[in-house]
From TrEMBL:
Natural source organism: Aureibaculum marinum
Main location: membrane
Keyword presence, Ribosomal protein: no
GO CC, alphabetical: plasma membrane
Membrane spanning stretches: 12-31, 43-65, 71-91, 103-122, 128-148, 169-186
Protein's name in the database: UPF0056 membrane protein
Membrane-topology annotation of the record: Multi-pass membrane protein
PANTHER family membership: UPF0056 MEMBRANE PROTEIN YHCE
Entry keyword annotation includes Chloroplast: no
Coiled-coil stretches: none
């Protein structure tokens, strides 16, 4: 069982689009202004721990409540679909609460390792090897850390227009991923 680089790349891109750390830069900057300092290291470490833990125990939790991975993946496809609609259309379907501190709560969870990310991780499990998903999670966390550290510079560099364009492009990619996830897993549901 060697490393499948195409799989790692696909999983990394999917998680990158779902985590949408570039699209979250305005939220991160807003947080920094409110709290003064963002604990990038702490937020990144907590996020990677949450994601990897969920990768391993998420399925057990589902079994406990009597849901199989395919059903969860179909539900995940809907969540990803709505996230993508938000990104493409520039509307807000999910309301974010204003946080008091900026490390674990708004950043690691739910901004980085939120419901969309958790759903995606389990949905990926239905299609990819564990090692590919873990590598994808680690790559994304490193990227998240860099973005958290350099959020001010990135915002100045891209400007509001640049960030909007990136969000829309990833939104379309996410829409396609949601459709594929739905199609793949809905067949498995009916084939049982």
């Amino acid at each position: 069982m060697g490393l499948d680089f195409k799989e790692i790349l696909t999983a990394t891109m999917i998680l990158f689009a779902v985590i949408d750390i570039i699209g979250s830069i305005p939220i991160i900057i807003d947080l920094r202004q409110k709290v003064g300092h963002i604990q990038s290291e702490k937020a990144s470490i907590v996020a990677v721990v949450i994601m990897i833990a969920f990768l391993f125990v998420g399925e057990e939790i589902l079994k406990l409540i009597g849901v199989d991975v395919n059903s969860f993946a179909v539900a995940g496809a809907f969540v990803i679909f709505f996230l993508a609609l938000e990104m493409v259309l520039g509307i807000e379907l999910y309301k974010h609460d204003a946080p008091e501190t900026a490390s674990v709560v708004p950043l690691a969870f739910p901004l980085i390792a939120g419901a969309g990310t958790m759903t995606t991780i389990l949905s990926l499990r239905a299609e990819f090897q564990l090692t590919s998903i873990i590598i994808a999670i680690v790559i994304n966390t490193i990227f998240v850390y860099v973005v958290l550290k350099m959020s001010n510079r990135i915002e100045r560099l891209l400007g509001k227009g640049g960030i909007d364009v990136i969000r829309k492009v990833f939104g379309v990619i996410l829409l396609a991923i949601a459709v594929k996830l739905f199609a793949t897993n809905i067949q498995d549901l009916f084939n049982h």
